[in-house]
Amino acid sequence: MIKLNAAQLRKGLQLTDYRLRQKQKAVSRKRNAIYIILDNVLDTYNIGSIFRLADAVAAKKVYLCGGTATPPNPRIKKASINTTEWVAWSYKETTVEAINELRTMNPKLQLVAIEQSPRAVPYDQFEYKLPIALVVGHESDGVSKEVLDMADAIVELPMFGVNKSLNVMVSLGIVLYKAIEKLLLSGRK
């Protein structure tokens, strides 16, 4: 498989025969049983970057919920470098609706919220399991209480500086790659 750099991806998918074949390969490639849920994430650059992250880990699907903007959106397109074209996604009016859909399809789904909470455990000490859905929330308000109550677990990143939190996409990236390290790279599936 040919990997494209950011400049090539930004040019968009001009569907020549070659580009069409590449898009078909990307869409049909094996996906990991990882779902990403955005609970009212508002910043379109965060949304686009999360699509890039979803592509990088071969996630099955991204759920955009509530006030989260959806493609097509020029800012999402720019930040995603067109990964919205092949990463599966859907919009749900509420995050609860997305969770219920996922749990119906995957009764063994592990729902993990990434949030600061008295219930939270350190992200690197948690036992991740597939299939898994990771939830990130609004940039200022975080994951909603209703969703936190539905979560099987809440994980958080330690903060040692003056700032009390990290960017939503950065936090998701750190947790996702820790989950992949524990689940996929260690030989467990």
Question: What is the secondary structure topology, with strand pairs?
Answer:
Elements lengths: L5 H5 L6 H12 L3 E8 L4 H13 L2 E7 L8 H7 L8 E4 L2 H11 L4 E5 L6 E2 L9 E6 L7 H6 L2 E4 L11 H16 L6
Outline:
By secondary structure, this protein is α/β, with parallel strands linked by helices. It is built from 7 helices and 7 strands.
Task: Walk me through the structure.
The chain is an alpha/beta fold and 189 residues long. It has one domain (32-183): SPOUT methyltransferase, trefoil knot domain (Alpha/beta knot), CATH 3.40.1280. It has helices at 6-10, 17-28, 44-56, 74-80, 95-105, 145-150, 168-183; strands at residues 32-39, 59-65, 89-92, 110-114, 121-122, 132-137, 153-156. A seven-stranded parallel beta sheet has the order 3-2-1-6-4-7-5. The chain is globular.
Write a concise keyword list for the protein shown above.
single chain; 189 residues; alpha/beta; Alpha/beta knot; seven-stranded parallel sheet; 7 helices; 7 strands; 37% helix
Report the order of strands and helices.
HHEHEHEHEEEHEH
Query: What is the third-level CATH name, the topology?
Result: Alpha/beta knot
CATH superfamily: SPOUT methyltransferase, trefoil knot domain
Strand content: 15-25%
In DSSP terms (H or I, runs of 4 or more residues), the helix count works out at 7
Structural class: alpha/beta
The side-by-side strand order for the widest beta sheet comes to 3-2-1-6-4-7-5
Kindly state the number of beta strands.
Answer: 7
Nearest-angstrom radius of gyration? 16 Å
The CATH architecture can be given as: 3-Layer(aba) Sandwich
Number of separate domains:
1
Morphology call: globular
- Helix fraction by DSSP (H/I, runs of at least 4): 25-40%
Arithmetic mean of pLDDT: 90
Taking the sheet with the most strands, its summary is: 7 strands, parallel
